[in-house]
Amino acid sequence: MKKTRLVWILTGLVVLVTVVLILFLPNPHDLLVGKAKVEQLPEGQDILGNAWTEIQSVQKGDAFLYIVEVLYNPSQVSGVDRDSLDTAVNLEPFEVRNIEEKEFNLDSGARVYQRQYEIQLMNGETEHLYEFPTIVVLYELRYADGFAETSVMPEPIYVSTRLQEGMYEMISALGQGYDPLRPLEGKIEDVSQNRLPWILWILGGFLVALTVVDLRLRVIPQWKEQEREVKKTKMSEALRQAYRSLDEKAAIGAEPKGLLYQMDYILKIVLVQRENAGWLEEPNLDLVSDEIKASVISLFEKCQNAYGIEEIKQKDVDEALKELKKILSFYFEGEMEEWKA
Asked: Considering 126, 191, 284, 328, which has the largest number of Cβ atoms within 10 A of its Cβ?
């Protein structure tokens, strides 16, 4: 049973780790950002700018990426003036939906500043090649005051009309070379990939729920029962020794007060339900069963009287012994005879 439960728990953990990895690992479609178009600077050149689109043709209304990138030698150039770049980039009549920035180093030693625009054409001509104006990039030299500048010539983009549903498949089947009309990579959705995280989430949630139910209904009760058994065993041992000592002293006619002191200790162990109950720890008599409460209260009062200055009669000790035996028989039926052995 323990091995089966362990297998379920490990399986649930593996599924959860898998789900987390799928959700947090980078999406392959997003790997374009962070890749430089040129890996190193031309010899003798400290800065180089590029501006291009992820594809060369789109359909009207499609969103696509337009990337502005500046490679520079960090030993000569401190960085790019990003504020001036805001006004230098003119993408009209395209509408900008989102802008992302990134800066990273290349193995060649060059540093890259990259800005990605997500744009689309909502209003404008179709079957038209759109050319963007030159971008002037300001940058700061490391060992000189002020800014220098460099020019970037953006690549053009061709916009076609949107095909009616089913037309693209027909044209592709005919193989007549309508490359500008191919759909965007960003528009292609792998439904199975989109559903996979949800499937794993559901499966992981099911396994977690199953594990929680197993813990609540079986594992935790078993742990508690084992803990109770251990406590009961320890308490029974303490009671056994205390009761045997009391029985021996009562048989030889020990001092009444001393016998009541021992009975008080045994009563506290039983009511507090702990083998090392302290002398000053008072039990809660309200929690005692009604079936035995009268005997418990009577014995408790006799034990308390033993701490006073009044003389204790043998009659009170005999009654206390009978009440204690009745109480112990109620809580530990069938065990008392073994305690005397």
From this structure: 328
Instruction: State how far the Cα of 295 lies from the Cα of 267, in Å rounded to an integer.
Output: 11
Half-sphere exposure of 330 (CA within 13 A, CB side): 18
Record the pTM.
0.40
| Tens digit of each residue's pLDDT (9 = 90 or more) over 52-96 | 888 878 888 888 899 999 989 888 888 888 888 888 898 889 999
Please tell me the number of Cα atoms within 13 Å of 95 on its side-chain side. 10
Whether 230 shows a pLDDT value over 70: the answer reads no
As a three-state string, the secondary structure of 62-73 is CEEEEEEEEEEC
| pLDDT > 70 in the chain, percent | 70
The closest alpha carbon to 101, from 90, 86, 87, belongs to 86
Fold adopted by 32-188: Immunoglobulin-like (2.60.40)
SS3 213: helix
**What letter does residue 206 receive in the DSSP assignment?**
H
The DSSP string of 190-206 is: -HHHHHHHHHHHHHHHH
Amino acid at 185: E
In this structure, the number of other CB atoms found within 10 A of the CB of residue 246 comes to 22
Tokens, residue 66? 């337009």
Amino acid, single-letter form, for residue 330:
F
Q: Give 284's Cβ-side CA count (13 Å radius).
A: 3
Domain ranges in the chain with CATH number 2.60.40: 32-188
Do 115 and 68 touch, CB atoms closer than 8 A?
A: yes
The mean per-residue pLDDT over the stretch 226-232 comes to 59
Contact in structure between 140 and 178 (CB atoms under 8 Å): no
Rounded CA gap, 85 and 8, in Å?
56
The SS3 call for residue 139 is strand
Query: Angle at CA 264, nearest 5°, toward 259 and 268?
Result: 150
Mean pLDDT of 9-14: 68
- The first and second tokens of residue 276, run together, are 């090392």
Instruction: Provide the pLDDT for residue 218.
Output: 75
Residues 181 and 163 sit within 8 Å (Cβ to Cβ): yes
